[in-house]
Fold this sequence. Notes:
It is elongated and about 120 Å long. Helix 34 (994-1004) crosses helix 40. It is α/β, with parallel strands linked by helices. It is 34% helix and 15% strand.
Amino acid sequence: RLRASMGLSAGSAPPHFRARETEQLSMVCGAEERLREYRRMLPGGDRSSLLDGIFWDAVVLTAANATQADVYVAQLDALHGRGQLPGKRAMYLVIADPRGPRVGSGGATLNVMLQLQAIAGSGWGTKKVFLLHAGGYAERSPAHGTLGKAFGQIPMDAANLGVPATILEAQLVAFTDLAKILPPGVFVSSADVAVQFGKLPALDNDDRAQCHDGVLALAHASCLDTGTGHGVFVCDRGEVGNLVSNTFSGSAFVASGAGGATITEKTEQESVKKKPPSALRVKRCLQKPPVSLMRASGAVLASPVATGHTCGSSDEWVLTDSAFHIGAGACAALTRVAATNPGVFAGVEICAYGDFMQPMGDCADSGYVGRVDHVASLSSVVTPSALNDAGSSSSAKGTDAARRLVAARELLATVIRGRPLLALPLLPSRFVHVGTMPELLQHCVRDDETLAAFPAPPAGIANGTWDVEMMDLLTARLPSVGADGVWGAAPGVGVGSRFLASRVDRGARVGTGSLVVHCDIGRQTVVGEGCLLHDVDLPHGTRVPPGTFLHCVPLGAAAAVAAGFELGIESQTNVSNDLNGGAHCWTCIVLSIDDEVKKPGHSTLGGVDVELAASRLGFDTACGDAVWSEFESHTTTLARVFPVCATSGEAVVAALDLLAEIRRAGGGKVSVPCVSRQSSRSSGDTNLNTENGAEDGPFPGSPRGNNVRSDRIPNFGTSTNTNTPEKQTPPTAAPLRVSISEALRVLANHAAAVARRDALRGRVIGHAVSTLLARDTPVQSWRERAPPLRALRPKAARRVCELADASSKRGGECGSSFLARQLRVARVALALANSPGDAKHAELVSKICLRNAVVAPFARGGALFGRQAMRPTTTTTQNQTENQKHAQKNFAGAYSVRAEYPARLNLAGGWTDTPPYALERVGAVLHVAVLVEETLSTASGSGGGKLKRPIAATARVDPALPRGTLRLVTDDTTETIMDIREMLTHDDPTHHFALLRACASLAIAPQYVLSGKDKEELLSGKDKDKATNQKTLAEVLDAFTGVPNAGVEIATRVDLPRGSGLGTSSILALAILHALHEMGTRMRWTPNGGGEETLNTQWAGRSAVVGGDADAVITESAHTRETRAAIATPSSRHAFNAVLAVEQMMGTGGGWQDAIGGALIGARLTKATPGTHAPCGLNSLPSYQTRVSDLPPAASTFLSRHLICVFTGECRLAQTVAVSVVHHWQARVPGVEKALRSCALLAGEMADALAQLGALDPEKEHFTGAGSERARSSLTTFGAALSKHRAIQETLWPSIASPTVTALYELLEPMTSGSHICGAGNGGHVVCLLKPGVDVEQVRTKVANCAQALGAKVTRVRMMLGGVSTIVPTTNDVSTTVPPANAVPTVPGVSTGTPLTSKPSAAGTNIRGDKPLDKEPAPAKETVAAPALGVGNGTGGRGRSGRVHEQGSGRGRKKRRTG
Length: 1459
C-alpha cells in the first residue's frame, strides 16, 4: 500500500526477510544510534578531541572545476565554523577534476589519489579517507546545481543545531561506523545518494587483510528491477544463504537456478557452516545487467518466503552495490599506474564502479571493455560497431574517445584483475537516490519510511524554518507540534509538506506533499500540491501551480551587462541587508516535477515537449539559434527560455508567467517577443553539455566564474526585503533569456547564492529571537523553542539582536533605545551559551552590557559634577547667570567640603530597584533614613553612643598636593593615584578603593568611564578613539576644580560594619559625589531647588565647608550659617542614577533604593518608572516618585518604640546576592517577575498601613502605652507584610538567609510580629517589629545570649520620620504624586496631581526635573502619575503577563485576526 501511494510498482519494492515494520525499526534504531555517536564527535561532544580510530583521517570532495571547488571550500568553511563537522578544518579537502573533458567518477578517484600523494607523500596510504564524488551541476535536479550536490539539504538535523543537514553530513553520519572497522584506504561514495541500514556487520581479520589489497563494496538486497540500474554481485549461494540465515535466524537457504527452478544448496551450505561469513567473496560484478544476464550468471536469489522466512517478501532478489572501499594496497597500485601513464587516462571518462570492479572476481568477464554505448558522453556519437568499422558514419572524434576509453580500461584491468572483491551485505538496508526532482520530492516528503530512517524530525517540526503566522507575537494562538508555540509549521501547511531553512509569512498556504527549501514565502501566497521550491522568494499573493519546480539562480556581471542592467545599482546594495545577496540579476528555473530535461527527442518543459513549449513562447525553433545553437541537442537543459530579471522576486513572477504561457491551451505568444541572439561560440568551442563546462561565458568578455572566499561571506544577514520585487528600470531591449546549463555552469554568482541563504537564515533567526524577547521566554528554553539558535554562540549576541530589531514589528522603536538594546544583548548572550566556556563568556557580556546601559548616558551626556558642569544653558535667569560667571573664575587656595548622610532601612520592595529589573519594570520600595548609634568612639554597642549620620565623605582641593595627584583615604588607609588609567580601574569590588575610584571617575572624568580592555567590544569606533586620546589626570583635575597646580583628596568615614545591609556603599557614593560637586563648584548643592528651610525638612544629608581635618564633624552651627551660593544641578534624579552608575562601574550592581532611602527624610514609598526610549541620554534611566507617610509626632514615636534593628554579626558583600538576582531576571527564570511584583505590592500594603496609623487622632490616646486596638491592628498588618516579604524572597533565593540569620529569626519570632533582613540579605541587619508589651531590653538580652549568633546585638537607630503632616515637596525629577491606594488615578490629558473631579488634589504638583542636560526632548505626557502600588489599586496589565501599566488600568492586548 505504501509503494502504491508513492506511485511505484510493487515489483520495485526491496525484499524483506522479516516483517517490514521490524526491519524498518531496525534501520531507524541503527540510524539513531549512529547519529548519537556522530554528535559526540562534533565540537563540544565528549569525543570531539579523540577522533583517532573512530573517524576518517581526511574527507575529500571532488568538484567539476576550480570555480566549483572554491564554492565548496566556502561552504565547508561555513559548516565547520558553525560546528556541524567533526575534527579540524584542515582534514576537509576539495579537489577539482582535471581541466578538459569530463573524466568520470573513476578518473576523479585517480586524480584524488594522485593529489593526496602529492600533498602527503606515501604516508597517505596509512590513512582512512572518505571520498565523496560531488562534481557536476545536477541538471536533472537543478536545485543542487548552483551550490553543489554535496551541500543539498535533507530533512535531518545531523548536528542538533536546528538546521537541515547536507548530503555530506548525512553520509558522514551513515558511514561513521565504517571508519572504525575498515583498514586504511579510500572509501568512495556519491553525493546524490543516501544509505540506510541497521547494525553494521563486523569484519574479522581475514576480511580486513583482503580489504587491504582489494575492494570491499557495500551490498543491498534489491528487487530485480533495481538491479538493472545498478551493479549486481554474483556470490557463492551457500555463503549468501548462511549469512542470511545467521542474520535473520531462518531455515535452509534456497537459491534460484538459471532457469528459475528452486534448488537446495545443502552441500555448499554445510561447507561454510563452520565460520559464519560477514563479507562475501564476489565471483563476478555485473553492471546494469538485464534480468536474463542476472539469471544466467547465478545472481538471482530465491524469495525470502521460499527460503523459510514466512514474514518475508515473495519476490526474487539480487545483491546490488552502493559505496565501496579501496584498500591501501589497491590504492597504491592504482596511483602508480595513473602516475606512470598520464596520457592514457587524460580526458577519458572512467566509471569508478564499472571499470574498477568488473575486472575483479574469480569469474570476471572482460567483455565489458569494448562496450561504450552506456557512456553518456559517447552514446550520442559512437555506435557499437564504430570501433571496428572505419567507414562508420560516427565522427572521428567520438571514435577516438571510445578507443581511448577501451585502452584505459584494459590498463586498469591489468592492475586490478585478481585482487579480492568482497561484498558486505547490509541486511536490512535501503539505498536511496536523490539525484532527480521526483526522487528528491519522493524521499524527502512522501516516503515516511525513508524519512524516519534519516532520521527526520517529527511531522510538524520544520528544520530551520520560521512560520510568522504561527509564531508571531500578535497572531499566535495555538502551540505547534512539539514546540510550545514557538517552532513548527502553520495550520495552512498541507499534511506531509516539508520546510527546510525557510520563512513563511502570514496567510501562506502550502499544498500537501510539497518541499520548500531556503525559501521566503510571502504573505497570502498559495503553493500547490507536490511542488519543489528551492532558493525562491515568493512575492506576496503569488500562486504556484501544483507539481511545479522553482529554483532561483543569481547571475554574475556578464549576464547583467548582456541584459542591459546597470551594475552600479546592485553594487550599492548592502549584501547583508538584502535577500538578493548582492547579485546583479537573477533567473528562475521553472519546470514540472516530472519533466525529462536531458534526453534529446524526449525532453519536456512544463509537461510539454520542449520544442512545442518553445514555439508556444513565440520562438521559431527552425532557425536553431534563438533557443538552441546549431550544434546543441534540443534538450530542456540547453533551451534558452528562462528570462533574466533584476531581482529574485521578479524572476519568480516571470518564470510563473512563462509556465502559464506554455500550459495555455492552444499556445500563444509572449507579450514581449524574444529576439534571436547570435551565439558567441563557433562549432569548435567547448560544448556546455560537458560536465566540466566551458571556462568562458556565453557572452564576449564574460568572466570564468566567481571565486567564493569564505572571509567575504557574512555569517548571516539582516533582511529588509518585504518580498515585493524591487523597482528597477527594465532594459529597453527584449529580455535576455538563458538556459539551465548556462545558468548553473557559467553564469551563476555563487557568492550571491550563499549570501542570500545567509540573509534568509538571518531573517529566520531574527523573527525567532524577536518573538522570544517579546514574550520574555526563559532563556534556558530558547534553544529548544528555536533550534537554529543552537549553532550560535554568545559572541554573536549583538548581531542576533540586530536581526531581531530588523524583523520585529517594533524594530524602529526598540532600535532607538540604547539601553534596551544593551539589555537585549545581555539576555541573548545568556540564551546562546551552550557550554561552561560559553556560560562564562555570556556572563561577561551580560555584565558589560548592563554596565554600558547604565554608565553610557553619563559618559555621553556631558559633565554633571564640579566646575565643568556649570555650562551655559538656554535659560537666562539671574541665578544661572551668576553661576556662569562663577564658573569662569579661577579659584585659589585649599578648599574642603564634608557631606554626611544617614543610613537607611528598607522595609519592603527590595530587589525591585536593582538593574536590570529596575530598567525594564516599575519598582517600588518602602524605606526610611535612620540615624545610627555611634560605635567608633565607644567600646561596645551598649546604647551609650550618640545617634549620628554614620556615613561621611570629605573632598579637598589643596595646592600643597602635587599637581595631578588624587589621594584616596578610607579606614586610615591611603592610596595616591598619579595616572588617570589607574583611577579608571575600578571594576573589582573587593579592591579597597574601588568605590572611591568609581566616584572620582564618574564625577571628574565621565567621558572616560567606558574605557577599559573589557569594554572595548561594546564601544563604537568613536568612543574607542576618545578612550585612546585621554587627557592626563592633572588636566581633568584642573578642569574639575578650577584650581591650577593642585591635587585632590577624597576621604571617607563610615561608622557601620562593612556589609551591614543599611545601604552603606550607595549612600557613601552619594556623599562622595555631593562633596566633590560642592568642592568643585564652591557652591551649596540644593537639588530640591528650595530654600534652607525646605532642605532641612526634606534632604537627609547635609554638607558644610570644613578645615583640613578629614574627620571634622559638621556642627549644627556650621550647617545653619551657610552663606554659599546655591546650585540646583544636577537634579536629584540624575544624582540617584549616578549612584546606579557607580554601582555598575565597581561591579556590585546595587539598586536605587539605598541612595534615595538615605537621602530623603520620611518613611517613603518610592516608585521608579523605566526611562524613555532616548537614544543614549540621561532620560533613558529611571525617574522616581515618592509618597511620604503622614505620621504625626505621636505616631512616629509609637512606631519607633516598636521598630528595632538587630545586627547579625555577619557581614556580606551585596554583590554576592545581587548577582543571583540579576542573573535570574536576565534569564527570565520562571517565577522571578511574579515574586518581584509581589515584593513591590507589599511595599504598597505597608505604606497603606503606615497611612492608617498616621490617620489616627493623637488626641484620643491611640499611641499611649501599648496603643489602641486600631493602632495595634495597623502594626500587625505592617509586621505581617514584613514576614510575607521575607518569605517571598527566601522562596526564590534561599541563600538570602544564612544559618545565623535563620537562628535569629527563630529567636525573635515569639517577640515580634514580623521581621526581615535588610539589603541583599545573608548577613547585615534584621529589622523587627515588636509585639505590644515587648521591651527592647528583653530583645537585647535574648540576642546577646544567642549561641548560634555570637556577634549579634541590637543596634540603636532612630528613624528620620520628619514629623510632617502632609506630603512634602520633594526634589527636582523626583515626583511626589504617588497617591494612596484609594486615590483617584490620573489619566492622560488631565493635569498631574489633579483628580478627575474639579477640586485640586492634596497631593500637590508633580514636579518634573529641569531640562535634561543632554538636551533630549521630553516625551509627550511623560509627567502623568501612575497609581500607587498597593492592593486594589486598579492597575492593569499587558495580557497574561500582568505587567504594571504606567497610565492607569487596562486589559490585555487585543488580538487581531489575520488572513
